[in-house]
From TrEMBL:
Protein name: Tricarboxylate transporter family protein
Domain DUF112: 17-439
Record keywords, A-Z: Membrane, Transmembrane, Transmembrane helix
Transmembrane segments: 12-31, 38-64, 119-137, 144-177, 197-217, 260-283, 326-345, 357-383, 389-409, 416-443, 463-486
A matching Pfam family: TctA
UniProt xrefs under InterPro entries: DUF112_TM
Organism the protein comes from: Pseudomonas jilinensis
Amino acid sequence: MHDLLLGLADAFTLTNLLYIALGVLIGQIFAAAPGVGALMAITIAVPFTFYLSPVTAIGLLVGINKGGTLGGAVSAILMNTPGSPEATATTFDGYPMSRKGQALKALRTAHASSVTGDALSDLVLFLVAAPLALVAMRMGPLEMAAVVLVAFVVVGGMVGNSVLKGLIAAALGVLLSLVGTDPETAGERLSFGIPELMDGLAISAVGIGVLALGEIFRQAIYHQRGSLHRLPDAGLGNPAQNHFGWRDYRHIAPTIFKSTGIGTLIGAIPGLGSTAAAFLGYASAKRSAKNPENFGKGDIRGVAATEAANSAVVGSNFIPLLSLGIPGNVAAALILGAFVIHGITPGPQLFTDQARLVYAIFGAMVIGTLCNLFFGLFTMRLFAKIIRLPLQLILPCVVLLCVTGIIVASNLFSAWLLIGFAALGFLMRMLDFSFVTFIIGFVLGPMFELNVRQSVLLADGNIGYLLDRPIACAFILLALVLIWRLSRRQAQAGKRLAV
């Protein structure tokens, strides 16, 4: 109780309130702009948090993450162009509602559903994370290495179109995480005599380069080819048709609660992410509806299902992050990178060694949800105008922020690394390698290496040590089965396409 009160007191300071509110606004704006997204905002913001306190820094990133879940629905509803991938399913019924003159009602539905799903997901996180951490504390290094191995397979197999390419991307991420000084022998590894690489590759340079600049390069090329959609003019409809009240909320409440359950479960599994949750939530709502033929034609339940499901992922993907040190998706991986920058090691020990910090993060998540609720009442109309800005104006500003941020947080050498990883991110997109898996491999690489090394030392060359650890054996077997099942499923899908 003592740590709980101190943690909440740390979170509810004026400075933290302002930074979290700023983060929510940034997340909403970036996610509302098609082709930019809240993920890019988190990536850019990470180096700017270098000089902030850990609670303020994590609070800012959590705010961006939460704001991004709502902002993506704006362009999906008004222009049939999702601001972020998880809002794709929102277009199915959101845009038809807009065509019927109910754009503002669709936006308000998305707002209410998103905040409800997010809040309930946070509640599950607060109740589940600590007990799960207690279970994780009983696991040894071999078990933890096996859990990370399963995470690599799940992420590599489910993100992207090829299990092999996913595993290669994860392995490349782990390999690059080894650059720098060996933590045990103090010898150089993969630094090629370059002094700036002795401390390893900065997560900010890798993340911004692969995620933000790599995507900007791709969009710039596609824009040159005229492949991007031209933004049409979009209105918010007749006010008389856009009333959203308590009766509407009661109508969609069962859909919201069901989709929140789906999103929470999906978010707790590494690799699946909010996009999968949104589609599953939408499919479940349509399948259980008495009149499924109305879905796709502007049914308010379609908007509620997708927004509640994708927002519920935001809280629950912190369950594996805080209790096991394994990020649930790429946004959580970037926040994990911010943890590392501030000297925080997520995992089961976090709840015993830094319980006050954990409760401060919980407090920051509550503030972020309240800010999303409050700001969403006023910002929807504003974002409807912002999203009409052309990409020719938006993208150069984002590039300037990326380069400035990395130089401020690190040094000029990191700016060159940034360009190199931007090229890598662009190539991975063109060759269909999962950049998400690469980032998670890079972030989890040190943890995987540490646990594997400790396991080798404990085994001391005795293979029987592995056989005496049934939980580790079960996870390793699970990883092999997943590789086989996912590879087989992709092969069958390829044959069907060929036919």
